[in-house]
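In response to reviewer comment 3 from the previous cycle, which asked for concrete evidence that the modeling workflow produces usable outputs, we include below a single protein chain processed end to end. The sequence was submitted unchanged, and the resulting structure tokens are shown without manual editing.
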Amino acid sequence: MPRLTARERREAYLREYAYQKRTGKAFFPYALWHDVLVNFFFVLLIVGLTLLWYYTSDQGPNADTGGKNGVLGPLYESRADPATEEYDPRPEWYFFFLFQLLRIFKEPNLLLLGTIIIPTIWMVLLIAMPFIDPRRERRLSRRPVAVSFASGMAVLLLALTWYGSKAPGAGSSTDALATRFISNQQCATCHTLGPAGWTASGPGPNLEASGVKYDEAVQVITNGRGGMPSFKDQFDEKKIHCLAAYVSSYANNGDPNTPGGSGAPQSATQLCEGVS
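The workflow returned the following structure tokens.
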């Protein structure tokens, strides 16, 4: 397709402008009226959804404790309990990608990379794309650089958002349970395990990425080893298996919410269910 000169482009523009001026519609009142109608429609839609949510949800005496779900959810959620030890904080859905980045770069010295540097690089690349690929071609097949970058960015953000939505929160119930009953036995004074908040400098080994398997952890917690005493008289069997699955998951770089390479028959979350 031959390129038009500046004069030819201007003449084509003037012909199109003259045609639209003769046959087109003015901005006022036609376009303004259309905008008013569309805005009015969305305002009515929001008001309608609000009324639907309000009148189909429980407004009785149980409303402040959750109530029954209406078409669009409960009118009130449970009241905040400042004494809870198992709160699982989670971000809004549009921050799930950043939430997942924090889980990937969870080491303290990598937090700046995951929270500031990588998102900033993404934004700079998005801003720079018109300068990297400045062609005016509109066919996607003729703009491989822009299409590849945009597609890759969309897939990456969607994947991070998806995994972030499925990931446990910053304070999962497993962490709270493990920290609660382990700290009571002063295990945290001997061992190091960052996810549980143990930063001991005692004689116990560092359990992070130590590779200890589930069966071995059960035996050591039950019968003791070396300078570590037995806990079979202090922990019941369910609590021992919960702790063993939890420790072995992190010791093998696994996730306590899914059965991994630790050898546990179930995830730590499942084995810790009902443990107090």
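The domain at 173-271 is CATH 1.10.760.10 (Cytochrome Bc1 Complex; Chain D, domain 2). We consider this sufficient to address the reviewer's concern, and the full set will be provided in the supplementary archive.
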